[in-house]
Prior knowledge:
The chain is α/β, with parallel strands linked by helices. The chain has two domains: 3-382, Tubulin/FtsZ, GTPase domain (Rossmann fold), CATH 3.40.50; 385-444, Orthogonal Bundle (Helix Hairpins), CATH 1.10.287. Helix content is 46%, strand content 16%. The protein contains 15 helices and twelve strands. The chain has helices at residues 10-28, 69-76, 80-83, 98-123, 139-155, 178-189, 201-215, 227-241, 243-247, 253-260, 287-294, 326-335, 378-397, 402-407, 413-444, and strands spanning 3-9, 49-51, 57-59, 61-65, 87-89, 127-135, 161-166, 195-199, 268-274, 311-320, 346-351, 369-377. Strands 5-4-1-6-7-8-9-12-10-11 form a ten-stranded mixed sheet, with helices on both faces. Strands 2-3 form a two-stranded antiparallel sheet. Helix 5 runs parallel beside helix 6, helix 6 crosses helix 15 (413-444) and helix 13 runs antiparallel to helix 15 (413-444). The longest helix has 32 residues, at 413-444.
Amino acid sequence: MPEIININIGQAGCTLATSFWKQICHEEDIDFNGMPLKVEDEVRHGTFFQQNSLGQHIAQQILIDSEEDVIDEILLGSMGNMLGNFTIAGKEDSSNCYARGKFKVAKEIRGDSMTNIRRLSEVVGHLDQFQFFYSTCGGTGSGFTTSLLISLSDIFNKVPITSHAVMPANENQDVVTEPYNTVLCQAETHNLIHCKYCYHNSALYELLDPIIRQEGRVTKLDLSPTFADMNHLVSLVPCGVSAGGRFEAGDCMKQMNINLVPFPKLNIIAPAIVPLYHNKSRVPVNQHTLITEAFLSNSELCDIDTFEGRYIAVFLMYRGNVRMPFNNHKFVRNSIDFVPWCPTGIKYEICKRGITHEPDNAFLSEPERGLIKISNHTTILTQIVNKIMQRYEKLLERRAFIHWYVQEGMEEGEFQNASESLQGALDEVDTILNKAADFNGDDDE
């Protein structure tokens, strides 16, 4: 059975922790004090919990932020008893500056963070993975995460690391320094993280908006999806891909990482969840429509157009009443563009436990069968990273805001080095596409 430690960093990461643990507790029938609501032999709680002598389940969770406000709010809320064991908070925020998070904040709280990680890892019987949650837009999520990952790789260099990162949307920009923070973080952590799940708030909003409007909340302001609503969608992904280890005999997470990442630089992956309907919806969902809908671009939790480019690999986590999907996969292989050098392209697992939603999100449907699709696609880098790079270069050529980063300890040369590092990943995608074109050309001859 895999055992995973969650590390949530920054405001976005810490608020994601609340949504994640509400969902895990709902799925595994555990209350917010860690006590089981009912005993189920088929549920294996050890993936995310340690059990003490009193029968209480302790969350394998560390909350880290550069200031106290968000963590204090969590500790005073309904999840405080469960999430209050390992928390680290600084006294001053990172001011949306990567360098401030990496140097000043790290100097203040990195030591305590590593101590807590070591303490928690010592009580975990078989540490299978570290799972990070953060946003690359702000200073703590980008800068401190980078610093912590560098330290972590020196001590736990054999333990795989996955991350669930909210990245800047392709259109709207909330923080003026988002391009700097994201590119600098991506460049330094590219080889430290095995799999990076990518999310965009804009994509999450578009998926939830029609459902929320159908829900008909009390005021006009309530008709828009909230961050709590969007965080719930994000939490369904790590809960879903770990379901095989928690409810079935399987453990697909290591196999999934190996299948999805053929090259170290191509480690950014895109999640999708289907179906997403209001609980009043009566739309029929059979197995064929399920997998067809999963491969539509508007099912993705990040802003990519999967009809451009090619799929490199796909992992499909079926949940609920699902038969062996061989015929469906044959249909996918014949109708969807995959890179020709990948022999299979599709890895899948079936968990008989269907997708459910914790009470705050009970307006979402709980279908008889559901699917979580995780894919590596060539457009992830070309459409997401490339657009961030363009905004990054526009700021860099005018040297805008650089002085704030230099004051915090960075050197100007690091900006160009980061640009060249990510450009190398983009060039690798171009090489793959060119080889694929040559491969097809040879077949045609």
